[in-house]
Automatic annotation (TrEMBL):
It holds the Pfam family MnhB. PANTHER family: NA(+)/H(+) ANTIPORTER SUBUNIT B, NA(+)_H(+) ANTIPORTER SUBUNIT B. The keyword Transmembrane applies. Keywords: Cell membrane, Membrane, Transmembrane, Transmembrane helix. The chain crosses the membrane at residues 44-62, 68-88, 100-124, 144-163. It is a multi-pass membrane protein. This is Cation transporter. Belongs to the CPA3 antiporters (TC 2.A.63) subunit B family. The keyword Plastid does not apply. It is found in: Cell membrane. Residues 38-160 form the Na+/H+ antiporter MnhB subunit-related protein domain. Its main location: membrane.
Length: 181
């Protein structure tokens, strides 16, 4: 759009296409199939869902399943981001190697579960750690939180791997059908 052109002077087919670079997700599967409402809503909701998943992780560690449910909520945020912008937008959000994410989550969960056995306690037993921080005061943590963090990272990695595997197939089929630009 030029500076002297108003939105009413543009052709009807182009009136809702994003004009500003901050609204663009990068390479899009098909510019005609974009939904500006979905993209903008996803950009607003994505950080909120991730913060909610961290809340579930931290609050749920006193009961079973906090890391798993929090990982699923965070994974759904990445699924929403993939649906809104495609694989290019997902790569802009999180670029680490997915097998490394899965491996680090599994390793953290495994080490956390086996460490009590080294001290003569049963496997997967938990204890309370108390730390006195200068500005925050005394903080108590359950050691099961570290297991839940490992499960959280593992589940996020599995969801990202599924998106990568399934999304590649979908985009390959779209390219074969001639639907990609």
């Amino acid at each position: 759009m030029t500076t002297d052109e108003t939105p009413h002077q543009r052709p009807f087919e182009e009136w809702d296409r994003p004009q500003e670079p901050w609204m663009l997700p990068g390479e899009c599967r098909n510019p005609e199939d974009r939904s500006l409402l979905l993209e903008m809503t996803t950009r607003a909701v994505f950080p909120t869902v991730l913060v909610f998943s961290l809340y579930l992780l931290l609050v749920g560690h006193y009961g079973p399943g906090g890391g798993f449910s929090a990982g699923l909520v965070a994974g759904l945020a990445f699924v929403l981001r993939y649906i809104a912008g495609g694989s290019a937008d997902l790569g802009a959000v999180m670029a680490p190697r997915v097998p490394a994410v899965i491996g680090s989550g599994l390793a953290l969960a495994l080490v956390t579960g086996l460490v009590p056995a080294a001290f003569g306690a049963p496997v997967l037993s938990t204890t309370k750690l108390a730390v006195d921080l200068p500005l925050l005061g005394p903080i108590e943590l359950q050691t099961s939180l570290f297991l839940e963090i490992g499960v959280y990272v593992l589940i996020i990695g599995v969801v990202l791997d599924l998106l990568r595997a399934l999304g590649t197939g979908i985009e390959r089929d779209m390219d074969d059908a001639g639907e990609l630009p």
